[in-house]
TrEMBL record:
Residues 71-142 form the Phospholipase D-like domain. InterPro entries: PLD-like_cat (IPR059166), PLD-like_dom (IPR025202). This is Phospholipase D-like domain-containing protein.
Length: 389
């Protein structure tokens, strides 16, 4: 019988992590990647400890790093491994070239979400003509993509991003940060303009208020934010450091009312750092209750409904609609067949709860509609700024 051989062209719609890593193992030499959004964990697996012959074309838009859809840490990993990285504005195509042996064109970014969870589609080609054509496209784009990224540039961008995030204001999803990518003719069918990205971060709902301190539905959201400063920091008790939250995670915020909790906005969070994320003396003087709630998850790029709390999104309605899919813990318990699966019994006495992809989408759809209907709180006035040290 004739020996079975790998087909020269194959469509792929699943198991992207395994497919891409297998192609990489089969051609462990040069690696060429075109991809707008790159996360460190996924890239680390793809590089597999290799050094040297690596070239990556991606986006250098600091707004993408600020929103958490891409990682400066991933680019640093590539450069420190001896790789070369260049940036292009409005990049959207995704292409993986494994030496001269194979090519993968796909909808999948270099993220765990794309490799392991999302519905992605593309092809794997061994056909020499197809691989050569993909190589020609890469080389043409590479020549127009500007200079190689340096470690010094990365360090400057990291400082710039940190300074922006510490301000605690500005529209999430906006474009107030610079894009350092090269301008390239977008006439190519490989480069449609798009800002869509696969979410690859966690999301939490942070609770404000207590059973003995419930707000009225007519409370002004803007006044509430100015009073508690949640547009720049969410507070936690001294005894409960918020270890779950990582940089670029999304924090939805909900205030307790008489018979519900109402989600009034969201922001991008930063990992709690014990040495710097504690309420200062000036902050405790301005808000004495912070003596009992001194730990911070600092947030930035907040978006809040410009209206009364009654304009917010019902937390109870979300739990009724989604059941165990409301929270990561109840969803996991349902999958494992043990533990509590009732969301109404899960959040009591918790400072926050981790959401699922489904509950995050449910909230986002309704929050975006509320922001469109009522407008967004203008966070520029001085009353929304942190007190001076």
């Amino acid at each position: 019988m004739p020996e079975r051989t790998e087909p020269s062209f194959r469509l792929i719609s699943r198991d992207w992590d395994a497919e891409i890593l297998a192609a990489r193992r089969a051609a462990a030499g040069s690696l060429r990647i075109i991809c707008p959004f790159i996360k460190k964990n996924a890239l680390s697996r793809l590089l597999g400890g290799a050094v040297g012959d690596i070239e990556i074309i991606t986006r250098f838009d600091l707004n993408c790093f600020n929103q958490g859809v891409s990682d400066l840490a991933a680019l640093r990993l590539a450069v420190e491994a001896g790789g070369r990285v260049r940036g292009i504005k409005h990049l959207h195509s995704k292409l993986y070239l494994f030496g001269d042996r194979s090519a993968i064109a796909t909808s999948a970014n270099v993220t765990d979400a794309a490799f392991r969870r999302n519905h992605e589609f593309g092809f794997l080609a061994y056909d020499p003509e197809v691989v050569a054509s993909c190589g020609t496209y890469f080389r043409d784009l590479w020549k127009r993509a500007g200079a190689d990224l340096s470690l010094a540039q990365l360090t400057r961008w990291e400082k710039q991003l940190t300074a922006h995030q510490r301000k605690g204001c500005g529209p999430a999803g906006g474009s107030e940060l610079p894009d350092y990518g090269a301008d390239v003719d977008v006439g190519s069918p490989f480069l449609p303009l798009s800002t869509a990205a696969d979410p690859d971060n966690q999301a939490f709902v942070k609770f404000f208020g207590t059973a003995a301190n419930r707000a009225g539905r007519d409370l002004s959201i803007a006044n509430m934010i100015a009073e508690n400063g949640c547009n720049w920091a969410c507070t936690y008790p001294e005894s409960k450091p918020p270890r779950q939250v990582e940089d670029a995670d999304v924090i939805y915020m909900a205030r307790m009312v008489a018979d519900d909790m109402l989600i009034f906005g969201k922001a991008i969070g930063r990992r709690h750092r014990d040495d710097e994320d504690m309420a200062s003396k000036a902050e405790i003087k301005a808000r004495p209750w912070k003596a009992d709630w001194p730990r911070y998850v600092r947030v930035h790029d907040g978006r809040f409904i410009d209206g009364a709390l009654d304009c917010g999104i019902s937390f109870h309605e979300m739990m009724r609609a989604l059941g165990p899919d409301s929270f990561a813990s109840t969803q996991r318990n349902l999958r494992d067949g043990s533990g509590n699966t009732n969301p109404f019994e899960s959040y009591n006495r918790k400072a926050h709860m981790m959401l699922t992809a489904r509950s995050r989408a449910w909230i986002d759809e309704r929050l975006e509609a509320a922001l469109l209907l009522h407008g967004e709180v203008d966070l520029r006035p001085s009353r929304f700024r942190p007190p001076r040290a």
